[in-house]
Amino acid sequence: MAFSLSATCWRFSVPAIALTLGLAACTPQTPPAAPGASTSSGGSSSPVAAGGGATISISGAGATAPNPLYQRWFQEYNKQKPTVQISYDSVGSGAGVKRFLDQTVDFGASDAVLKPDERSKLPADRGTAIQVPTTGVFVVFAYNLDGVDNLKLSREAFCGITDGSIKTWNDPKIVKDNAGVTLPNEPITFVHRSDGSGTTDIFTKHLVKACPNWKAGAGKTIEWSTGTGAKGNEGVSANIQQTKGAIGYTEFSYAKQTQLKTATLQNKTGTFVAPTPEAAAKALVGVEVPADYAVKVPDPTQADAYPIVSLTWVLLYEQPKDPAKAKEIADFLRWALKDGKQYATELGYLPLPDELATKVAATLDTIKVAAK
């Protein structure tokens, strides 16, 4: 596919799940560590691997949304390169950003881009904080309601559920879009995140656009007016699974893995769209990708697009403490964005288009991986 250089951004051109990218210019849980291998981020680790050679142990932490994919990538990459052991704590984007800024990990991960005040906290000797996308994610309303297999939620309905103004399943605002479905006169239990969460950031940024009466704002943490909290996408999914009448937001792959039912949502154009990778990919059509990869699609306008979609990012140090580890992280990411695409598709994530992956690889080249 031909592309030209000009101006200051890229644009996605995405026919369904086959993501392609028109470039319009720009500047530039885990396989266990080998016995005796260190997983600390400070210093080097060089125990002998089973097959001979030095083992490098790399640690990361952050977003729970991409965790199933990251775990799969680490496992598959370890088969290709047994001397590289990557551990990852799925602790949420907020904790991941904190650990990255505190330099207690070799890389962080977040479903929300770094804010200027967060960037300013990175010590100068680490250089600029680099954030690169790894995959596309989308957030679904998963629910546990016997006898209701194809729930439709208008914007008015899901806004009411999240702000607490809709309290029972047979509320007229839900009933009107679910003809022929028997909705019980039972209370709704809304499940949300209790920890600092990029998934919450994605979800609430959509609510700000979609819900005229939404008052809580957007961010990794907010003050919820209703519902019960759970930690991580793992915790939210488990809570929904265990609670009759529950509904909450979680990343699609978690609902898929736990076989939770997911609601069809009304998008900005008024179309009801089922949560599928194909529909989610359409939300990225024509989206501008700035130089720092901070893509924003809080309320996509494409007619058939699923409405709650984002990229997710890995956080890296421009001037890492351990150049050898930094080189291995960069090599892993290049592998993930090329050979790892098949696993993203398999698990229900949105692989990056080839052109964007190529640009990310160029950004990885700016990391100082040679010892001074």
Radius of gyration: 21 Å
Q: Can you identify the CATH class of the largest domain?
A: Alpha Beta
The residue fraction in helices comes out at 25-40%
CATH superfamily of the largest domain: Periplasmic binding protein-like II
Could you tell me the number of beta strands?
Answer: 15
Summarize the main sheet: 9 strands, mixed
**Euclidean distance between termini CA atoms:** 39 Å
CATH topology of the largest domain: D-Maltodextrin-Binding Protein, domain 2
* CATH second-level architecture of the largest domain: 3-Layer(aba) Sandwich
- Total individual domains: 2
Based on secondary structure, the structural category is alpha/beta
Runs with pLDDT <50, length 5+? 1-8, 14-51
**Helical stretch tally:** 12
Q: How much of the residues is beta strand, in percent?
A: 15-25%
Report on this structure.
This protein has about 375 residues and is α/β, with parallel strands linked by helices. The chain has two domains: about 10-135 and about 310-365, Periplasmic binding protein-like II (D-Maltodextrin-Binding Protein, domain 2, 3-Layer(aba) Sandwich); about 140-285, D-Maltodextrin-Binding Protein, domain 2, CATH 3.40.190.10. It has twelve helices and 15 strands. Helix 10 (about 325-340) packs antiparallel against helix 12 (about 355-365). It is elongated.
